[in-house]
Amino acid sequence: MKTFAASVGLIALGTSVLSAVESKVLNSEQSSKPWSVSASLRGFYDSNINSSPDGSEQESAGVQISPSINYGIAGEQTSVNLGYYLSANWYDNPYSTWSGPWELTQTMEAALSHTFSPRIDVNMKDSFVIGQEPDVLQAPGGPAANNQYISGSNKRNYANINLNVQATSLLGFQLGYGNILYNYDDSGPGSNSALLDRMENAVHLDSRWTLQPQTIGIVGYMFTQVGYTGDEVIGFAPGPIMSDSRNSRGNTVYVGVEHSFTPDLSGSLKGGVQVYDFYNDPNAETKTTPYVQGSLKYMYRPTSSVQAGVSLMQTPTDAFNAQGNSYVLNAESVVVYGSWVHEILPKLYSNVNGSFQQSKYNGGSVDGENSMYYRVGLSLSYEFTKLMSASVGYNWDQSDTPDALAYQSYNRNRVYIGLTAAY
Fold first, then answer.
1. Number of independent structural domains in the chain
2. What's the CA gap between 270 and 162, in Å, rounded?
3. Exposed (0-12), middle (13-18) or buried (19+): which is 300, by Cβ within 10 Å?
4. 271 vs 376: CA distance, rounded Å
5. CA–CA separation, 309 vs 355, rounded Å?
6. Pick from 210, 256, 399, 241: which is nearest to 324 by CA?
7. Which of 46, 60, 142, 259 has minimal Cβ neighbours within 10 Å of its Cβ?
8. What distance lies between CA 418 and its chain's CA centroid?
9. Phi and psi of 352, rounded to 5°?
10. One digit per residue, pLDDT tens: the chain, 423 residues?
11. Which domain covers residue 78, as residue numbers?
């Protein structure tokens, strides 16, 4: 199956303030020149290439070729960066429904930051992806509506813009807009396109209060709207239910704090309430749940760091299950994630990362039941020179769902080894 992956940026739903536009949108290679290129060659083994349920897994070895190019300019007021990434995977045992052994993923990104004055700046980002893997297709930093590999030329566009205004020395504001567009390749009743094609819009306004030089207090509001665009039958409850029956509007109010404990340790936490209304379903009740976003970062060496975070919010889901006139509308998802990068020896680095997601369904016979998703990644890398490195790694994924959604349960193991060159 030849597929191309592109990710166009939809506006983030709550990104933090970006200042110092001279460097924020550039990578480390662009500090001395405007462009950078890299390429990696990896051999891999995948125990479940199609994220199939237990008993129907298909394994394969393969080769991955991944070139990329970035171009960025840092000015006194304006910085711009453009990036293109290609991932070409060859499988020696491709899935039976694929058109061939090659799978191609393309990602294109653009970012811009501009400072109008010492008190006003704006930053924008756009990312477009066409591909199959959920860790590429899902919106950055958010829960996954579908954790499984999805065959086809599936598209995701993610974009955000944030305007930051420092009104006084004690009070600032951030106005942001985010947009996410999903378009899956398949079609027909009950397909991924029917269940997951959608556009998400979000507008937020934060007031930011300088409580201390190291502490910013936040009081904010966010409006979100999810519109499903598949225009297909997704199931019966007992009559036919269309894609847009799960459309929703949400209102979120929250308070929070950002604090720098030391120059190397910083964190943020926001908490509040989300209220969602499913306006196309006359039988659906308004859903009210807590809202939490938190993160912590510790840079204990110039090349070593620990990061962790947690989120709790209402999210879309690809699951459909009905009981009477009730069906799954969305899910309440808790996500916990963390990563640890450590320099073991000069030029030798380890990377440990993981995440856990628990999603509680809203509606249908699985109302109130939970699905669990686990992900762990381990890797070692060694820098032979500034331009050449080698890496070896292992990734594990597991999805556990209620019996009524057993088709979404799976276990997957991936191992890889390769070389990367950058300039």
1. 1
2. 18
3. exposed
4. 27
5. 9
6. 241
7. 259
8. 25
9. -120, 125
10. 333 222 222 222 232 222 223 334 555 555 568 999 999 999 999 999 989 998 899 999 999 999 999 999 988 899 999 999 999 999 999 988 888 899 999 999 999 999 999 999 999 999 999 988 777 777 766 676 667 778 788 999 999 999 999 999 999 999 999 999 999 998 899 898 999 999 999 999 999 999 999 999 999 999 999 999 999 999 999 999 999 999 999 999 999 999 999 999 999 999 999 999 999 999 999 999 999 999 999 999 999 999 999 999 999 888 889 999 999 999 999 999 999 999 999 999 999 999 999 999 999 999 999 999 999 999 999 999 989 999 999 999 999 999 999 988 999 999 999 999 999
11. 7-277+388-422
- Amino acid in the structure at residue 211: L
**CA dist., res. 329 & res. 316, Å (int):** 8
How would DSSP label each residue in 129-165?
A: EEES-HHHHSPTTS--S--S---S-EEEEEEEEEEEE
Q: Count CA within 13 A, CB hemisphere, residue 190.
A: 6
Burial 34-66 (b: 16+ CB within 10 A, else e): eebebebebebebebbbbbbeeebeebebbbeb
H or E element at residue 255: strand 248-262
317 token code pair: 């889901």
CATH number, domain at 42? 2.40.160
Residue 109 near residue 121 (C-beta atoms within 8 A): no
Q: How far apart are CA 142 and CA 226, in angstroms?
A: 15
| Token pair listed for 183 | 């378009």
Name residue 205's beta-bridge partners: 175, 221
For residue 407, the cross-strand partners are none
Q: How far apart are CA 291 and CA 282, in angstroms?
A: 25
Do β-strands 154-166 and 7-9 pair in parallel, antiparallel, or remain unpaired?
Answer: parallel
Domain assignment present for residue 342? The answer is: no
Q: Is residue 83 part of a domain?
A: yes
- In the chain, how long is the greatest CA-to-CA distance? 65
Q: Assess if residue 296 is contained within a domain.
A: no
What is the DSSP secondary structure assignment for residue 111, as one 8-state letter?
Answer: E
d(CA 421, CA 367): 50
CA angle 9/355/222 to nearest 5° reads 45
Is 251 within a domain?
Answer: yes
Residue with the two structure tokens 């460097």: 23
Global pTM value: 0.86
